[in-house]
C-alpha cells in the first residue's frame, strides 16, 4: 500500500465537517466550484488534489499550507515526519521502551482514561479529536491519546511520569503493574 495514500486517508478520517468546509473554501482557486460541491470527505478533496497534481508524496507544500490555515498543527507535524522519514510512521513498527507500559495501561484502565490523560496535560481539543477519529472504540481512543502524549513529550516521555499520573488518579493497582 502506498504510504502517502495511507497518510491522506488518516488525515481524512481526522477532519471534522467544519475543517473540511474550511479546506474546500481554501481550495477555491485550485478546484472549480462545481467539483468542490461534490466533495463530501477529505478523501474526495485529496483525490482531486492528487488528480490535478497539486499534491504528491514529494509535493506537500500545498497540503502543509492548508493544514496551517485550519490550525491543525498535528497534521502538519505528521506531514513533516512523512517528508523526513518517507513513511507514514515507520518507527511505530518497532516497539520501544514505552510500548509495554502503554499496553499494560490500556489493558487495565477503563472508562476513566480521560482523567489520566488530563493529568498528563493532554488538552481537551486533542482528546476530542482522538475520540472523533475513533468514535466506537474506547481502547483505541485511549491508546491513541497515550501515543499522542508520547509524541508530544518526545524524549521526555518517561514511564515514571505515567506512574505518577496513575497514582495521582488513584489508579495504584495499574501503577503497580506498570512498575513490574
From TrEMBL:
<keyword id="KW-0399">Innate immunity</keyword>
<keyword id="KW-0053">Apoptosis</keyword>
<feature type="domain" description="DED">
    <location>
        <begin position="3"/>
        <end position="81"/>
    </location>
</feature>
<feature type="domain" description="Death">
    <location>
        <begin position="98"/>
        <end position="180"/>
    </location>
</feature>
<comment type="function">
    <text>Apoptotic adapter molecule that recruits caspases CASP8 or CASP10 to the activated FAS/CD95 or TNFRSF1A/TNFR-1 receptors. The resulting aggregate called the death-inducing signaling complex (DISC) performs CASP8 proteolytic activation. Active CASP8 initiates the subsequent cascade of caspases mediating apoptosis. Involved in interferon-mediated antiviral immune response, playing a role in the positive regulation of interferon signaling.</text>
</comment>
<comment type="subunit">
    <text>Can self-associate. Component of the AIM2 PANoptosome complex, a multiprotein complex that drives inflammatory cell death (PANoptosis). Component of the death-induced signaling complex (DISC) composed of cell surface receptor FAS/CD95 or TNFRSF1A, adapter protein FADD and the CASP8 protease; recruitment of CASP8 to the complex is required for processing of CASP8 into the p18 and p10 subunits. Interacts (via death domain) with FAS (via death domain).</text>
</comment>
<dbReference type="GO" id="GO:0005737">
    <property type="term" value="C:cytoplasm"/>
</dbReference>
<dbReference type="Pfam" id="PF00531">
    <property type="entry name" value="Death"/>
</dbReference>
<dbReference type="InterPro" id="IPR016729">
    <property type="entry name" value="FADD"/>
</dbReference>
<dbReference type="GO" id="GO:0097191">
    <property type="term" value="P:extrinsic apoptotic signaling pathway"/>
</dbReference>
<keyword id="KW-0963">Cytoplasm</keyword>
<dbReference type="GO" id="GO:0005123">
    <property type="term" value="F:death receptor binding"/>
</dbReference>
<dbReference type="GO" id="GO:2001238">
    <property type="term" value="P:positive regulation of extrinsic apoptotic signaling pathway"/>
</dbReference>
<dbReference type="InterPro" id="IPR001875">
    <property type="entry name" value="DED_dom"/>
</dbReference>
<dbReference type="InterPro" id="IPR011029">
    <property type="entry name" value="DEATH-like_dom_sf"/>
</dbReference>
<dbReference type="GO" id="GO:0030674">
    <property type="term" value="F:protein-macromolecule adaptor activity"/>
</dbReference>
<dbReference type="Pfam" id="PF01335">
    <property type="entry name" value="DED"/>
</dbReference>
<dbReference type="GO" id="GO:0089720">
    <property type="term" value="F:caspase binding"/>
</dbReference>
<dbReference type="GO" id="GO:0045089">
    <property type="term" value="P:positive regulation of innate immune response"/>
</dbReference>
<dbReference type="GO" id="GO:0031265">
    <property type="term" value="C:CD95 death-inducing signaling complex"/>
</dbReference>
<protein>
    <recommendedName>
        <fullName>FAS-associated death domain protein</fullName>
    </recommendedName>
</protein>
<dbReference type="InterPro" id="IPR000488">
    <property type="entry name" value="Death_dom"/>
</dbReference>
<keyword id="KW-0391">Immunity</keyword>
<keyword id="KW-0597">Phosphoprotein</keyword>
<dbReference type="GO" id="GO:0001819">
    <property type="term" value="P:positive regulation of cytokine production"/>
</dbReference>
<dbReference type="GO" id="GO:0045087">
    <property type="term" value="P:innate immune response"/>
</dbReference>
